[in-house]
Design brief:
Shape: globular
Structural class: alpha/beta
Distance between the termini: 28 Å
CATH topology of the largest domain: Rossmann fold
Number of strands: 9
CATH class of the largest domain: Alpha Beta
Number of helices: 11
Largest sheet: 9 strands, mixed
Oligomer: single chain
């Protein structure tokens, strides 16, 4: 058993941003210039689709694959910021939109969840086929970090497809994170997520208006006021997990970090209002030979607000060091 490799990263917020809530909100509302994407639609083996947005770089450049968090998209400020950092280094950027997150509802009842990796796998294998022999790097934010972490742990040949990864503000223990966001003033965040999830449930109810089970699940999901309640009545049964507890247990990645064979960094702020310390247990890293934990005292959730783009720069510099270490 190895000693967990953890480090405190040198983030120093401005005085007014030394609060996790303030940092989270300020970073999300920070002005980030639009990115000129080239959109590609991927048709999936199960008859559905998802959209991928590209920032093209030189033919031999490293490829950075980015996945957003819950109800985000390639247009989220944190995704645009890291895409701009990649572009400034002449890297190629690939921003994945989860199903139903690119502005158009997907065809199937199912969409995405914390452990859904099918579309990720399709993208990574398409890159390997279309652009072989180029370094491929991955970044996942929050729920997207959970998806990438699950893919890295479950995919036996992941190390042949990806050279390094960074997971930002990722809930390694899903149940602990959901309990946290559903309590106290943090429920305001839960309600914000539900404000975008509910309209999607209504669209699914209209899509499948002849299916009594879907109508019943939708009716129950639209009544709840917590993330756990939504997961219990919609996310879990729609995706075949039965209930929220089973969904969380099957898809959280804390016990699966040791299975990751790709050099991976987890970045977490101790004042994250979504992901409490017990959702990022240090002992989970003990047997994870290829995973490091970097923590900051401040930063919020996908925050790390600063006068310059601290988070996106830190991510890309971390991955650049990985490329340099490969020779």
């Amino acid at each position: 058993m190895k000693r967990p490799r953890t480090a405190d990263s040198p983030y120093r917020p401005p005085a007014w941003a030394r609060n996790g809530h303030v940092n989270t909100i300020a970073a999300y509302r920070a002005g980030v210039e639009p990115v000129q994407y080239r959109r590609e639609r991927f048709e999936t083996p199960d008859g559905d689709f998802f959209d991928v947005d590209h920032v093209d770089g030189p033919p031999d450049s490293p490829i950075l694959v980015v996945l957003h968090g819950l109800e985000g998209s390639s247009d989220a400020p944190y995704v645009r910021a890291v895409m701009q950092q990649a572009h400034s280094r002449d890297w190629t950027g690939v921003a994945i939109n989860n199903r139903s997150c690119s502005g158009e509802v997907n065809r199937r009842l199912t969409s995405y969840h914390a452990g859904f990796t099918d579309d990720l796998d399709q993208v990574f294998r398409a890159i390997a086929e279309r652009m072989p022999n180029r370094p491929v790097l991955a970044v996942g934010f929050s729920l997207g970090g959970s998806q990438i972490g699950n893919w890295l742990a479950r995919t036996t040949d992941a190390a042949e497809l990806v050279d390094g990864a960074v997971l930002v503000s990722v809930p390694l223990v899903l149940a602990a994170s959901c309990a946290h966001i559903d309590s106290g003033l943090r429920r305001l965040y839960a309600w914000r997520f539900l404000a975008t999830l509910r309209p999607k449930v209504k669209k699914k109810r209209r899509q499948f208006d002849g299916d009594g089970d879907v109508i019943d699940m939708a009716r129950r999901a639209l009544r709840v006021g917590t993330i756990r309640g939504f997961d219990h009545h919609w996310t879990a049964p729609v995706h075949g997990f039965g209930d929220a507890a089973t969904y969380y247990d099957v898809n959280h990645i804390a016990p699966r970090l040791a299975a990751i064979r790709v050099p991976t960094t987890v970045l977490h702020a101790l004042d994250d209002p979504f992901v409490p310390p017990d959702a990022v247990p240090r002992d989970a890293f003990s047997d994870a030979q290829h995973v490091d934990l970097h923590q900051t005292q401040h930063g919020g959730h996908v925050g790390w607000h600063h006068s310059d783009p601290w988070l996106s720069r830190w991510i890309v510099e971390r991955l650049q060091k990985r490329l340099s270490s490969r020779g």
